[in-house]
From TrEMBL:
Top-rank taxon: Bacteria
Protein name (Swiss-Prot/TrEMBL): GntR family transcriptional regulator
Database matches in Pfam families: FCD (PF07729), GntR (PF00392)
UniProt cross-references to InterPro entries, sorted A to Z: GntR_C (IPR011711), TF_FadR/GntR_C (IPR008920), Tscrpt_reg_HTH_GntR (IPR000524), WH-like_DNA-bd_sf (IPR036388), WH_DNA-bd_sf (IPR036390)
UniProt keyword Cell inner membrane present: no
Residue ranges of every copy of the HTH gntR-type domain listed in the record: 14-81
Keyword Transcription regulation: yes
Keywords: DNA-binding, Transcription, Transcription regulation
Length: 240
């Protein structure tokens, strides 16, 4: 496993599990750990300079979240999601997100509105970087901020967990995304935000649905088996 983790320095031992969890998760969602990358408990503990116990506990949480899975009886690996799983999770969020947007128009505080706006501004800042992990993270931050403003923690966590896994899947097909010339979705996020600011729940829901449909259109090969197979074949040709 490549060296990607820095040793943890914490004032109390009880924080090591959480710190190890965040460090490993950051490595996965930032693309430092490749799709299918082995995660060996003792190697991670050595890199973090901690005992194996907090690492074992952190890996158990990540397995529960669906980001990693067991690897041939020894350790774990970054989970290899299927196209069908991607489509199913995307569809689940399509149902939940308009509901959260509607709630946000009714309950968002000034502080929560600022957090949504900051997420959009951050999305704009990273849009030109071409850094796919950062662009995807900015999108997750927007949807998390909207969920928090909606005041429904379980549904917000549901949406964010699904987005983490769908983003992990997209990271594994970065070349296809490059070929599709996927652009960040900041303009659509901003339209949703403006509707929330105006407490216009009908407009906010309509824009949230439009946003999901627009993402589906941009990512159409991932939702159509024939298109997807053609893009994968082209990706393999480009590797040669």
């Amino acid at each position: 496993m490549p060296k990607f983790l820095e040793p943890l320095v914490l004032p109390r031992a009880s924080g090591y599990r959480e710190a190890a969890y965040h460090a490993i998760k950051e490595g996965i969602l930032s693309g430092y750990l490749a799709y299918g990358q082995p995660l060996i408990e003792e190697e991670i503990a050595s890199q973090l300079n901690v005992s194996r116990t907090p690492v074992r506990e952190a890996l158990a949480i990540l397995q529960h979240e669906g980001l990693i899975s067991p690897r041939n009886g020894r350790g774990f690996h970054v989970r290899q999601l299927t196209r069908e799983e991607f489509v199913t999770m995307f569809a689940a969020n399509e149902v939940v997100e308009p509901y959260l947007v509607r709630l946000a128009t009714l309950t968002a505080t000034d502080m929560q509105l600022r957090a949504i706006q900051e997420a959009i501004e951050h999305g704009k800042a990273v849009a030109e970087s071409g850094d796919l992990p950062r662009i995807l993270r900015a999108g997750r931050d927007f949807h998390r901020a909207v969920g928090i403003a909606a005041g429904n923690a379980p549904l917000t966590q549901f949406v964010v967990n699904n987005e983490e896994r769908t983003d992990l899947y997209l990271l594994s097909h970065e070349k296809i995304l490059t070929m599709l010339k996927i652009v960040p979705f900041n303009q659509e996020h901003e339209m949703i935000f403006n509707a929330i600011m105006q407490h216009d729940s009908e407009a906010a829901v309509r824009l949230a649905i439009y946003h999901s449909q627009a993402v589906r259109e941009r990512l159409s090969p991932f939702f159509n088996v024939d298109e997807f197979q053609k893009m994968v074949a082209l990706q393999e040709v480009l590797k040669e």
